[in-house]
Amino acid sequence: MLDFEPEDVALPPGHFIGGKSAQGGPSLEVRRPSDGKLLAFVPDASAEIVDEAVSNAQQAWQESGWGHRPPRERGRVLRRWADLIDTHAGELARLESVGSTRPIRDSFSHEVPFSAECIRFFAECADKFGGDAVPTRRDSLGLILTEPYGVVGAIAPWNFPLSMASWKCGPALAAGNAIVLKPSELTPFSTVRFAELAVQAGVPAGVFNVIQGRGAVAGSALVKHPLIRKVSFTGSTLTGAAVMTDAAHHGMKPVTLELGGKSPQLVYADAGDLDTLADRVVRGFTSNAGQACVSGSRLIVQRGIAEQLLEKIAAMVASVRPGLTWREATRYAPLINERQAMKVDAAVRDSLACGAAAYCGGGFFEHELGGYFYRPTVLTGVDDGMLAVREEIFGPVLTVQVFDEEEQGLALADHPTYGLAACVHTQDLGRAMRATRRLAAGTVWVNRFGRTGDFIIPTGGFKGSGIGKDLGRQAFESNLRYKSVLIDF
Ligand code: NAD
User: Fold this and answer.
1) What is the 3-state secondary structure (H, E, C) of the chain?
2) Whose CA is nearest to atom 14 of ligand 1?
3) Are 231 and 307 found together in one domain?
């Protein structure tokens, strides 16, 4: 039984610096998305607190020699950490679900075990990938040595707090860096417990610090801090641009940017069973109520099956019901807050005013829970100029565009701004491969939607969806810098 009462969850009090919880900065309200009630206050770090956390991390990194330890030893510590995450799964899942949009069933069966596995994956990378000896002149030896950067600044979005933290902290720590993580001010709690468990597992106190606070103050101060040598950011494209600008002007630091998306679900008439397809499409745009970077928010469907597929999609979403995230029976997520709710509704209304039609949904659920729950919404009659097609909405909204010829479908699927993920549904291998090659997206799924637990597959966007990769060997390697050495003898 996973049900719990939100009042029974003990929340970590503030920042986590030097292996201890710390206060500092005025308080920010944190609300529960499910019912809108006040969950707790969290400190809002000033630039001074950020400086304390980063300086502490730098000192701990140097004094502990974390970056010089045998890689297998770092791997052992990370594996112990992953085991602790598993043994504290219930507690972490409750911390995640009490203040985020993730229903407890998903936090417990997905977020927490996936985070533990992600840490294990990077623990395995620690002693597998490194430098190289390279061919040079006969009387010299060319070496490429790898070394950690030092202190990595990581900034995470509000959705999927534990997964996002594991994507960033796993590779940074495995590669021998220290890390200062700023979770979102909307979902700040679970990552503090996550860091406490890392220290309990043997990550030296101070090598993993967490600071709480708003992006414009704490986030920006973190990026600009002179001791931060690399920045790993996940969030919206707009904020990513600000982070990149700050990083360029304050030390020219490398940045990994995992940003927004507007992912197409490209469905050909030969895609197969329509019930299976409808299920995939629905899960693609309603998972976490569409508040996922890879949300499959644009259906591009071939005319022959369009009407039938839409009927099935509408029938499936008709059974969706709002629920509290702390009840095991809940499947459908609330929107994170009022601001996001107004943004989703405004995008839908704007598109309706411009001539789109709501095939289903198009407004909020009526209910007594207190949170903002938006009906899964399917918009037809849209064009590329409409807000719902142009911009990432981050809500359960699917736009539908119908095509006749293969080329037309591919042209519609390619988004001018975003290129995070795309999926193609067809039984024709040649067509699938043509589309895969052609789509300008960092990830292409064929006859499926969504990631698996194969952490070896990197994730990251093209165009406005980002720079660099999380996950995979690429994420590990991006947490190392490469030194070229030439020895004459
Ligand atoms: P956001 O950009 O508003 O905030 C992200 C983080 O950046 C937060 O911690 C915030 O406090 C911080 N921040 C804000 N301003 C900052 C600044 N000037 N300097 C430094 N940090 C700053 O995004 P959000 O609403 O929290 O998250 C949703 C967005 O994240 C969506 O666009 C979604 O697509 C994206 N996202 C992308 C991925 C991916 O892997 N590509 C994964 C999850 C979410």
Assistant:
1) CCCCCHHHCCCCCCEEECCEEECCCCEEEEECCCCCCEEEEEECCCHHHHHHHHHHHHHHHHHHCHHHCCHHHHHHHHHHHHHHHHHCHHHHHHHHHHHCCCCHHHHHHHHHHHHHHHHHHHHHHCCCCCCEEECCCCCEEEEEEEEECCEEEEECCCCCHHHHHHHHHHHHHHCCCEEEEECCCCCCCHHHHHHHHHHHHCCCCCCEEECCCCHHHHHHHHHHCCCEEEEEEECCHHHHHHHHHHHHHCCCCCEEEECCCCCEEEECCCCCCHHHHHHHHHHHHHHHHHCCCCCCCEEEEEHHHHHHHHHHHHHHHCCCCECCCCCCCCCECCECCHHHHHHHHHHHHHHHHCCCEEEECCCECCCCCCCECECCEEEECCCCCCHHHHCCCCCCEEEEEEECCHHHHHHHHCCCCEECEEEEECCCHHHHHHHHHHCCCCEEEECCCCCCCCCCCCECCEECCEECCECHHHHHHCCEEEEEEEEEC
2) 215
3) no
Nearest alpha carbon, ligand 1 atom 16: 215
Structural domain boundaries, residue 87: 6-259+465-488
The answer to whether the CB of 182 is under 6 A from ligand 1 is yes
Q: Which residues are catalytic?
A: 182, 258, 293, 392
Note whether residue 459 is domain-resident.
no
Ligand 1 proximity of 170 Cβ (cutoff 6 Å): no
Question: Residue 164: which CATH number?
Answer: 3.40.605.10
Task: Output the CA 158–ligand 1 centroid distance in Å.
Answer: 7
- Please write the tens of the pLDDT for every residue from 347-359: 999 999 999 999 9
Which atom in ligand 1 lies closest to the alpha carbon of residue 246? 19
**Cβ 261 under 6 angstroms from ligand 1:** yes
Q: Is the pTM of this model over 0.85?
A: yes
User: Model confidence over 217-241: pLDDT tens digits?
Assistant: 999 999 999 999 999 999 999 999 9
Q: How far is the CA of 240 from the centre of ligand 1 (A)?
A: 7
How does the average pLDDT of the chain come out, rounded?
97
For ligand 1, whether the C-beta of 293 sits within 6 Å is yes
Q: Let me know if residue 64 belongs to a domain.
A: yes
pLDDT given for residue 198 in this prediction: 98
Report pLDDT digits (tens) over 327-370: 999 999 999 999 999 999 999 999 999 999 999 999 999 999 99
Give the tens place of pLDDT for each residue, 249-266: 999 999 999 999 999 999
